[in-house]
């Protein structure tokens, strides 16, 4: 591979060397080696490259097919051509470590981030090696999750969290129902909106390495992801069954907050951070590396695209669509 490689850093850093180069040209010349490098290193940061025509051009050089952000869980701006802003939560909030779309049965294998404008302070995108995270989660917790899987319950209503129209990308109820049936999501139209329930994997096997990875978002969807005051407020407003989002074991039994705290600790203890620089491009394997966001000051603009679909439904053969109805 051409360019300068700092393999001692993580993520691995690749720079163009003495002569400025367009990242699109570099990727075209090194694509086969890049695939091998990503599987080995899991995350690669490209720094000091220029672009011929912005993020869309860069994304085209990396991927033959970019994915739509379907069945959404966070607010983003759709930039067109399956390019998006990073999650647009308020700047004072942290976004915990997670693998993208791990609350679904299919997901992107790769993520590409482009730092258009770094924050004046903070705003890092911490990463964690999922091999290390998986190893650090206590065996008895992993055994129970492997046996029971994870259930995600979402209640969509106006003015709280994301509306169902944004989550499903349509205002057509028939299209929502079709998506739910095809993806094994139980759905119920309610007086206030929509309720969905889906059971998904707790672990997934990487298609190239064969490694079994902790791959879910139980710790993000669970009520305990909120601060105590927010938990109390949500319960008083909606009751447990009406919370905007929550997670359970796949059999409907509760996941203890103490269990989820141990999972969060495994992520936190393996976090690695770097300072964004303008025009940095970060490529990660979405199964082998989790990501998050630190709070920040000033403006910050990071773009993302998702690529290379992977389906746990096809691999493991989950049960077909759950019977659904209106209530």
From TrEMBL:
The UniProt entry, under Gene3D superfamilies, shows: Clavaminate synthase-like (3.60.130.10)
| Pfam families, per the entry | TauD (PF02668)
Q: Where is the TauD/TfdA-like domain?
A: 21-305
**Which positions, given as ranges, span the membrane?**
none
What the entry lists under InterPro entries is as follows: AlphaKG_dependent_hydroxylases (IPR050411), TauD-like_sf (IPR042098), TauD/TfdA-like (IPR003819)
- Print the keywords alphabetically: Antibiotic biosynthesis, Oxidoreductase
GO BP, one example? Answer: antibiotic biosynthetic process
Q: Which organism is it from?
A: Cystobacter ferrugineus
SUPFAM superfamilies found in the cross-reference section: Clavaminate synthase-like
Task: Provide the GO MF annotations for this entry.
Answer: 2-oxoglutarate-dependent dioxygenase activity
- Name the coenzymes or cofactors required: Fe(2+)
Keyword Glycoprotein part of the UniProt annotation: no
| Record-given protein name | TauD/TfdA-like domain-containing protein
